[in-house]
Design a protein that fits this description.
13 strands, alpha/beta, 8-stranded mixed β-sheet, homodimer
Chain lengths: ~400, ~400
């Protein structure tokens, strides 16, 4: 895709676009399904109806053979080159808990851990303490004051938290202090930059505060990353976008490109449908809807759970659509094949319905049908131009 | 493909990869085969079995419409951008005979030729002298001494030899002396650089030595090229690679990317199978196996010979596989359609078996089946990331 071309051709109109992401949707042949994939095996009358009247294809998340993390996979779907727009783990963690990062903030992931009397790490996750315990421990750390920066400590989940330093000219060339294995001391922060001094002081103060806590008597830091602001989806594509996503991670990535994050009750498609409706009523013309359970099932290797997750999404689809969209795209961010129990590099089926679409050989929504679809195979970053075009939001190039 | 992305994600493991190249594999519809291609017409039960359990696609060697030489075609298969990593013919010739080129060496191809008494070229190949005669003539030239460089002259095959100059600051901006047609004098080497002076002196001394030989009484030089070292396949992809190839050219290209070149007896698949086994036992985890006869048959326009060559490879396939590979890729370096008797730009069928693969609509190995395969069409340089991913040798990109 030519850089900057789409942006120059954007023309606004009243069309509404839904980008529905079934996380980890793609899969491979599964023996217990007679060689079918969960999407092929699932009963999905609603998606099949859209497929029959729309266009199908397969998207490649990053590049052939490259397995994406969730962050880059979603950035690709939003039209952001995931290699150009890289997001560090610390930044994702902070965005994921809804923290409003500012340009230049230095963020890192925290793991509460257990040290023995010799300072050796004996448990890198402090026995996977509860989230309540995590919140309690974070409360003890939020008062740490370090000269030259404002420090924010935020609970995430179980033994996971994150820290954000806000100051001037911070750098993120700081190695993980997590040794990666028990039986070793935390890796010391060396380096003479002001940022190294700040992190060393934070670790020292945290160690003093936590030293008598059991089992979480210290912290390990990972994924130091500076936050840099991305051009927003509004600036680039003229879209007023909203995210309906339950999990912090996806809310975080959506926030990174300037989407408004809708409130909605967890694990509940009815709540999501309400949030979609509210977002449209609130003047948004692009809704990113995130559906998590298929990915979790894939990571568990649970074929039936993945089928159920896809079927659940399909049953809920009419409630998402009744708000009225001109263009609907249903896809996944990446594949999470059940036999692998991992994200993978395999391409992901894409369905676009609404606007003028060409029909291919496909009549239902699945990996195989998508292979015979009118859209062919293409990069994830090409979805956004296809959606904008389908919605009449792109002008002609040249005379 | 993003430059350098794959290299950053490489993770080593014990998986073994076979890249089997049937040279010139791709073809087009042939009337005498009822519109089928030789690969479609050939009986290939072994490859069809792998196809049914693997993933198929088509690779584009350089770019759509571009016909590759064997050098760039193979570099693409090895994951090297063939336009970025260009190799001159002189360099390929020297590598092809196993000469250990050093960075900065200037190499050129030699053709022994026949001049008449007026110095006009009457035969550009000196009557295709025997390889024994070639060796004999080269023996006469190896003692040429030129100030400022060390000179190596190497026999290749029949009327073909090559020359390498080793010195400082040599350049390869030197035109062919081969006029390309009989009835003309050799093209003189003009230019005032030290390298021009060296080549002129070499030609003059060679002319004196050969002047009474018949029919090979002079030489023509072509394809001047400086050797530059490429990053090795080990550095880039973490692979300990070996080449099982009978022809010098392919051994040369494999050597260029740092593969170990296995000894094996010529024209004999049993010998090749032994070499494959030995390479694996020697600790190699990536084997490049080259099979030449299909290309030669294509260049001869001999449809039945091409079918036989493909069938011969198929019969030998179990012997190549019995050493134990986790991932097997079978493809060609380019198409050599029989009706064209030439290399062509047409895409080339690719079969990947092993590792988690998605199935498409294909159930046998052919151009048409590959069109309906799960992998779609892609650039030859994308094969290596797909193989690494299939073998579990690539980590996830981003969180």
């Amino acid at each position: 895709m030519y850089r900057g071309l789409v942006e120059k051709l954007v023309q606004k109109n009243d069309s509404k676009i839904l980008l529905a992401v079934i996380d980890g949707l793609g899969d491979i042949s599964i023996e217990e399904l007679g060689g079918r994939t969960p999407l092929e095996a699932a009963l999905t009358p609603e998606m099949d109806r859209l497929a029959a009247g729309g266009a199908l294809g397969l998207h490649i998340p990053i590049a052939r053979g490259i397995t994406p993390g969730s962050g880059p996979a979603h950035l690709g779907l939003f039209g952001y080159d995931p290699v150009k727009y890289q997001v560090g783990r610390g930044v994702l963690a902070a965005l994921g808990v809804g923290f409003k990062l500012q340009h230049g903030d230095l963020a890192a992931r925290i793991n509460f851990c257990t040290l023995n009397e010799k300072g050796i790490v004996t448990d890198r996750r402090a026995g996977r303490i509860s989230t309540e315990k995590c919140v309690e421990l974070v409360e003890m750390l939020v008062d740490i004051r370090i000269e030259g920066v404002v420090t924010f400590v935020l609970p995430v989940k179980q033994h996971r938290a994150c820290v954000v330093f806000r100051g001037n000219d911070l750098i993120d060339d700081i190695g993980d202090t997590d040794p990666g294995l028990v039986g070793h001391r935390p890796v010391p922060v060396t380096g003479s930059d002001e940022s190294h001094r700040i992190v060393r002081e934070f670790l020292q103060k945290a160690g003093e505060i936590l030293k008598d806590c059991n089992p979480a008597n210290f912290i390990l830091l990972r994924g130091f990353a500076l936050h840099r602001e991305f051009p927003s989806i509004e600036e680039r594509f003229g879209l007023t976008a909203a995210a309906v996503a339950l999990y912090p991670m996806y809310r975080g990535v959506a926030g990174l490109v300037g989407m408004d994050i809708m409130k909605c009750s967890p694990e509940d498609t009815t709540g999501q449908a309400k949030a979609v409706k509210k977002a449209l009523q609130g003047g948004h013309d692009f809704i990113f809807l995130h559906h998590k359970p298929a990915d979790s099932a894939g990571e568990d290797g649970n074929v039936q759970a993945k089928i159920s997750a896809i079927e659940k999404f399909d049953r809920a689809l009419p409630s998402f659509l009744e708000s009225g969209f001109d263009v609907v795209c249903i896809t996944g961010d990446h594949s999470t094949p059940c036999p692998m129990k991992l994200h993978s590099w395999h391409s992901v089926p894409v369905l676009i319905h609404g606007g003028p679409q060409r029909s291919g050989y496909s009549s239902a929504f699945s990996e195989k049908q998508a292979l015979a679809g009118a859209l062919g195979s293409f990069m994830s970053t090409e979805i956004m131009p296809l959606l904008l075009a389908s919605a009449g939001k792109l002008a002609k190039f040249g005379a």
